[in-house]
Design goal:
Blueprint (H helix, E strand, L loop, with lengths): L1 H17 L4 E5 L9 E4 L5 E5 L3 E5 L6 E6 L24 E6 L10 E9 L7 E11 L4 E12 L10 E6 L2 E7 L34 E6 L15 E4 L3 E8 L4 E7 L5 E6 L22 H6 L17 E3 L18 E7 L10 E6 L10 E5 L18 E3 L4 H4 L2 E6 L5 E6 L8 E6 L15 E4 L6 E6 L3 E7 L5 E5 L5 E3 L6 E9 L4 E8 L3
Antiparallel strand pairs: 1-24, 2-3, 3-4, 4-5, 6-7, 7-8, 8-9, 10-11, 11-12, 12-13, 14-15, 15-16, 16-17, 18-19, 19-20, 20-21, 22-23, 23-24, 25-26, 26-29, 27-28, 27-30, 30-31
Length: about 525
């Protein structure tokens, strides 16, 4: 009887660990053109930026789209700006981040902010980026005025960043904007700059340059008086390609999501004035995965004139390993994270107080998918990872051929729908929707779904295993929760002749981070 009670408690725990992973996938019929930003507004519309300086809103109930604004001064670059060296890349351009005023539903503050390229009519490259503010009329559903509030945001031939947030910190509202290092990697393409001192990625820690920074502005585009350097929009420095920003309004924590070079994609907690180390430091400080990293960390000295200066370690690093020897992008373990969002809802059980991050890369060991990072209560660390509850956990990778390169993510007011947009990597640019399955179909104590089968059951000698998804690891535990067997190589069958007679639980960890379970019995011969 005691063993039966233990098994029931154990399996109920597994149900809690897996139940929130059951979703129903659908697509909206919306036609999109190279979308970049996706924001679920307090008006219950999806707000999207598209190619050509376009801002659209989409009704999530039926997919109907309305183009609400097109920037008349949008500029797509010029052939004269093409880099003459290496593979002769074009200048970067596009419609990037969008943010809604923190009090968007108030008619007096119904502002939309977004970023697009324009012709600055300066020396080559003349294509720069600007932040534009639109005044929205909720009654007529129209833009009634527009104003450029920030000009001359930096540009280059790669790594432009481009994410935008409107946040309330304390009693003040700010715009947070991310810029990349604007340079092409000297390791991956060593002939693009001659000499290499011309590569803009050398100046991301220099406050006199705008690239490789997180910038903070007032909502009118002016510079806050308490920024780290007086009269400078720089909020943090030392970033490579920060394409993601997420904000927890309860704690005031800003999270930044950043592409690494061959290794060490990062999530960072942004603190005013801090240096995040690129390109001297990559990922965690203590691993010395990059030549000279430890020496830079140990000898770092504060820069006079930067309030709050200090070297800040990554909150989380994907692919925290030494530099690979292969030059094949698909072989690197980087995931190419694009954006993230702070999930603050009880809509999906077990997901409250987490960061959801989407990725762009279909590689040898990576998929275009969503990561969930479960945070500690204070948001300053991750909840410890376990076999049954990996942290981070991964979702939707099995659908990557349908979903494509995931550019952004949003969730509904009730928290039960996850919205994803892609640009490229699928049959079309689209809005994919994952809705929490209200009836995941648990039957008695049998866990999860028909994706996993094991037979014969009961078994006496050889248990065969069949799974619909790629397997990372299999484990067997007994009624007491003790580990009996594990393998990361042999997934087709288990020899059970050494098992005692009784009931066991087969636990299968998938390559996409999910976990499936089946109960089986071993009988004596």
């Amino acid at each position: 009887m005691r063993q039966a009670i233990i098994l029931i408690i154990f399996l109920i725990g597994l149900i809690g660990a897996t139940q929130a992973q059951s979703f129903i996938r659908s697509e909206l019929s919306t036609t999109l053109t190279t979308p970049w930003e996706l924001t679920y507004g307090p008006d219950n519309y999806l707000w999207i930026t598209e190619a050509g300086g376009v801002v659209s809103k989409v009704d999530p109930a039926n997919g109907n789209k309305t183009i609400v604004y097109t920037a008349s001064d949008y500029f797509n670059g010029d052939v004269s700006e093409k880099l003459a060296l290496c593979h002769q890349p074009d200048i970067q351009k596009g419609t990037l981040g969008l943010a809604l005023h923190p009090q968007f539903l108030n008619p007096a503050t119904a502002f939309i902010y977004f970023v697009h390229s324009y012709n600055s009519n300066t020396l080559t490259p003349s294509t720069k980026f600007k932040i534009r503010r639109l005044k929205w009329d909720h009654g007529t559903s129209q833009v009634v005025s527009d104003t450029t509030i920030v000009n001359d945001l930096p540009n280059g031939y790669d790594h432009i960043g481009g994410r935008l947030l409107a946040v309330r910190q304390g009693t003040n509202d700010y715009l947070i904007f991310s810029t990349g290092d604007n340079g092409i990697s000297e390791v991956n393409a060593p002939t693009c700059y001659t000499p290499q001192i011309n590569n803009p990625n050398n100046y991301v820690q220099d406050v006199n340059y705008k690239n490789g920074k997180i910038h903070r502005f007032n909502l009118d585009g002016s510079i806050p008086i308490d920024n780290p350097v007086s009269g400078n929009s720089m909020y943090t420095r030392g970033h490579r390609n920060p394409q993601g920003l997420a904000y927890n309004p309860s704690t005031g924590i800003l999270y930044e999501i950043e592409h690494g070079d061959r290794t060490d994609d990062e999530i960072n907690i942004l603190e005013k004035g801090k240096n995040y180390g690129w390109k001297n430091v990559r990922g965690y400080h203590a691993d010395n995965n990059y030549p000279g990293e430890s020496a830079f960390v140990s000898s770092y000295t504060l820069t006079p004139g930067i309030n709050g200066d200090g070297l800040k370690e990554a909150f989380y690093s994907w692919c925290a390993t030494s530099q690979p020897t292969t030059s094949v992008y698909a072989d690197w373990c980087t995931v190419a994270p694009s954006d993230g969002i702070y999930y603050n809802s009880s809509g999906i059980p077990g997901w409250n107080n987490s960061i959801l991050v989407v990725t762009l890369k279909n590689g040898l060991t990576t998929d275009m998918e969503m990561y969930k990072f479960q945070l500690s209560i204070d948001g300053m660390s991750l909840v410890p990872s376990t076999t049954l509850n990996p942290n981070p956990s991964k979702f939707f990778g099995a659908d990557q051929a349908q979903n494509g390169r995931l550019r952004d993510i949003a969730y509904s007011t009730d928290g039960k729908k996850i919205y994803l947009i892609n640009n490229g990597g699928a049959d079309r640019d689209k809005i994919s929707v994952y809705t929490l399955d209200p009836n995941p179909g648990f039957n008695e104590l049998e866990i999860l779904n028909q994706a996993l089968r094991c037979y014969p059951n009961p078994v006496s000698e050889q248990l065969s295993i069949r799974c619909s998804y790629p397997i990372h690891e299999i484990k067997v535990v007994d009624l007491m929760g003790r580990s009996i067997y594990s393998s990361m190589r042999e997934f087709d069958s288990i020899n059970t002749t050494g098992f005692g007679q009784g009931t066991y639980l087969l636990s299968v960890k998938l390559e996409n981070g999910g976990v499936l379970h089946k109960r089986f019995m071993v009988m004596s011969r």
